[in-house]
Amino acid sequence: MGSLTAFVIYAVALYLGYTSVGIIPVAVGISLISVWGSFYNSDKIVLTMTGAKVIDHDTAPQLFNLVHEITIASGMPMPKVAIVEDDAPNAFATGRDPEHAVIAFTTGILRVMDREQLQGVAAHELAHVANRDTLVSAVAATTAGAIALMSDFLLRISLFGGGRRDSNGSNPFVLIAALVAAILAPIAAVLLKAAISRKRESLADATAVAFTRNPTGLRRALETLAADSTVVHQKSNAVAHLWIESPLDSKMTSRLFATHPAIEERIANLRALEQTGPLNESA
Amino acid sequence: MTGIYVILGVVALLVVIGIVQYNKLVRLNVAVDEGFAQIEVQLQRRGDLIPNLVETVKGYASHEKETFEKVVQARAQATAAQGVAAVAEADGMLTQALRGLLAVAEAYPDLKASANFLSLQEELSGTENKVGFARQYYNDTVRALNESIVSIPGKFFAGPAKVVERDFYVVDDPGKRAVPNVSFN
């Protein structure tokens, strides 16, 4: 979101004739401010974007209890719990730090899953909060934006000349290199973002098991998600990485660009944990 | 002249290490206290649910006197318990008694279907899980504290920080210890 702002400002500046290099720091600065703003208010923005309604203990006692159980297991503060009206089973976590976290579940997931499964899901989502994944994704987005900005800058320098304009035109090799960079860099940035997001999903699974000491619940929850074919109605790319199961149709996007690891892979990992024996025999 | 600087530097380094270790031990000690307080909060909450549960079950199964008495007795003991070991023991007994009560409920379909019982059952199993997780968290904090106290350099600072090794919360639950019955039919 921040990089987009920077691009718009940069484009406007170019249009107005400010081709000087001096505009770059200004654009980067403004984009950083906007990233900070969206990071600081991420809980409210995401709640509005997904239409999640915050609930309390009396509205949904079981769900509230489940989340409370995990906060006790992890020693974390109680997050806000929200419900999204959507038939597709899914859940997500957001918020810049544990004190401002929100965990949301769709009405679909509450309908199809039993207590043990939901506990696994709640643990996975709280693990995202504990691992500061919102911070990580904000950093990833900024980095991706910066890479795109740099490649664009490089292209402009070589196209319009960076000073030695009046010698004998721009060097064709520099131009080609810049063109290639301009095309490849944004793709690389998206790949980077997806890779980071996938790593965080697997890490969140592991952290969730550390909280509950029960890989079975999460494994069974993922199996239910894998068997389910309904997809969350809002296919917004912006919040895709938040959900426990990717809301974007996985067949449309290749593995490399996927924000989530293959669900079968995650199930296999949890199964391996189950086989290593009883984890809950702590002292 | 350089000799003085070296000595000053070493002393400053030692002071910094000392402060860091001292603070770490104090922090871990507070975490253990918090962990135990959380167990007590959840046990208290479970205790508060019991009269309601007993009344509800009584409405449908008034002649199961023995089971009710066991629960009430175990609850009284749990309320009176002090210290980690005693609380853990009373907790285990109450868990047993409650299991008996819920087993009684199984025999009464009307009771099992009543909304009041269902919501009580959810609260009870939720609290039961919370007690379990609070116990797990407490034991994790105790392990972290005890490890720092017995290992170097924490060993040297445990005395000044007035921090001692703490007891693990061990539940003596016969139900959990029992060897599962295996039959080869």
Automatic annotation (TrEMBL), chain B:
Q: Tell me the membrane topology, using the record's own terms.
A: Single-pass membrane protein
Q: Which UniProt keywords apply?
A: Membrane, Transmembrane, Transmembrane helix
Query: Where in the cell does this protein reside?
Result: Membrane
GO cellular component, as recorded: membrane
Gene3D superfamilies attached here?
A: LemA-like domain
Q: Name one Pfam family in it.
A: LemA
Query: Where is it mainly found?
Result: membrane
InterPro entries, alphabetized? LemA-like_dom_sf, MamQ_LemA
User: What family classification does the UniProt entry report for this protein?
Assistant: Belongs to the LemA family.
Output this protein's name: Unannotated protein
